[in-house]
Amino acid sequence: MRIEQHPILDFKRGKKITFTFDGKQMKGYEGETIAAALHAAGVKSLSHSIHLHRPRGLYCAIGNCASCIMEVNGEPNVRICVEPLIDGMVVNTQSGKGELK
Amino acid sequence: MRTVELLVVGGGPAGLCAAIQAAEMGSSVILVERSQHLGGQLIKQTHMFFGSEKQYASKRGFDISNILLDKIASLEKITLMQSTTVMGIYEDGVVTLEHKGEYIKVLPKATIVATGASEKTLAFPNNDLPGIYGAGAVQTLMNEYGIKPGNRVVMVGAGNIGLIVSYQLMQAGVEVAAIVEGGPKIGGYLVHASKVRRMGVPILTRHTIKSAHGKEVLEKVTLWQLDDQWNGIPGTEIEFGVDVMCIAVGLAPLSELLWQAGCQMKFIESLGGYVPTRDENLQTSVKGLFVAGDVSGVEEASSAMVEGYLAGMSAASYLGYKLYNMNEVKENLLNQLDSLRHGQMGEKIRKGIAELQIEHEAAASVDA
Amino acid sequence: MLEVTGIPTVEDIEKVFPSKERLKIGPVVVMECFQNIPCNPCYTACKTGAIKEFEDINDLPTVDQSLCNGCGLCISNCPGLSIMVVDMTYSEEEALIKIPYEFLPLPEIGETVKGLDREGKVVCEVKVVKVLRGKSLDKTPIISLAVDKEYVKIVRNIRLGE
Fold first, then answer.
1. What is the rounded distance in angstroms from the CA atom of residue B239 to the CA atom of residue B220?
2. Interface list for A 11-40 with B (CB within 8 A)
3. What's the CA gap between B279 and B288, in Å, rounded?
4. How many other C-beta atoms lie within 10 A of the C-beta of residue B88?
5. Cis bond leading into C105, ω under 30°?
6. pLDDT in tens, B161-172
7. What CATH architecture does domain B2-118+251-367 belong to?
8. Is the pLDDT score of B233 beyond 50?
9. ipTM confidence
10. Cβ–Cβ of B217/A55 closer than 8 Å?
């Protein structure tokens, strides 16, 4: 859900770009983080706990808590709350601790 | 290996002011920031700041950030490194950085750690459900990226952050069902509380979260009342159907680098947890290592900025750069900090900081 | 009470509300600032000298009501949005109040909207007389409302729509 009108802020959004999330094509804006783009598309469940596989969402949004880690372009454990979205990015839900290929 | 006179870790209000002050006195500065943006939490503060003109009172946080960033851009002595994380501070003084997969070593002559603080969490069943955020995360989504976190929210914590973010949620068009506060009183500024109250938002003091409910994401929250021993009272449960819960129960200093550097640390509850001892010039027990802002004790952005100027001046002085009226400037900054901490809200902060004061030989070299 | 509820009590409001005599003269400021916090932009904003200089920035503001002309410059400069202006001379039945309002959409001039009390409850209908916005207000528009005199100490916010 994007805010279109705000009493205090003007949002200057960058170029519209596309990326994939678990194989689905999605849109976001240049200059925002992966987490922001996923959130705007209503995706709130980001990582999963290692043992019980409980869904985890965004918590700190400043690269600190690791609640949002995902696999990005094949690299696991990327903190998507601080990782800028880039055109053509491949973002996937990560299972377990992730694997370096 | 890169060498630099001063390394500033953190590009929030404290770090920016520290870099400005040190560069203006002649020091070369590398300013490292983990995020892609400078300004720290300032860039998502849409409310006007308290304080006096010296701390840009009555201006909004993001406007203050722009003023500081313009200043930074005008100073050639400052090298900016955004999207860069400090990995460690080593015994030989080497600081290691990671920037987009690249590993960088820097050897600074002095360092200012201004890493800020991070949101604390709260223990209750299902507190890990997506839809439960630190209040700061919601500010990032709304005010930095223009994205609503959901439709209806319960805010946990009636300190300044809880009150301010509730107001900002309403400005973004999100309904605030209630603000829940464990303590018997509102912790934040009462003017902030009155702002949300007259929008019709209830503040439930002496209440806390009993549990959160939902399968994949948050769907419902159960609150209950607390007795004087902070135990939940059965039979007082209230339910709210919400898709967002914000946790604003305080901040904890991001002090990992200080621990690693061997700084003497003390647990001061009113300052958010473990914080470094320091002298009047904000130099820690480690020579040449200075602190400013929330990492040295959680306060407001206004005091973080003043501390930044002070640490920047102290570090520059330590490096041999002097101002003809340095004592006067220092006096002025210390007075500003005093008056920001002077009110009834500042009492605990003053006590906490008093417990952290140390004097060591290194201090002499700053004042010389 | 205020520190538990966040709502200034009737007694709190009485303490800062101008006297009947002063209200007869014309518009005047009401500062609902009840807590010692480090803050003084109201003083800096005041061009008539009505809001006195702070000895300590944690002091509560003091107003020389004889110098206040109700201009409202302080309203949008107050970080706590705790200031309003009251004019009991507006008309026989109605008072004019000026309040800050930082939400969208803004009301239209002439529109009738709900008047809310300090708890956010609807208490009456009020008429929008003026909507002031501009660069100097820095995104804190000031709304002038015609309010039944009976509600002048009660209305502190508005709600648009249904």
1. 7
2. 11, 13, 32-33, 36, 39-40
3. 12
4. 12
5. yes
6. 999 999 999 999
7. 3-Layer(bba) Sandwich (3.50)
8. yes
9. 0.97
10. yes
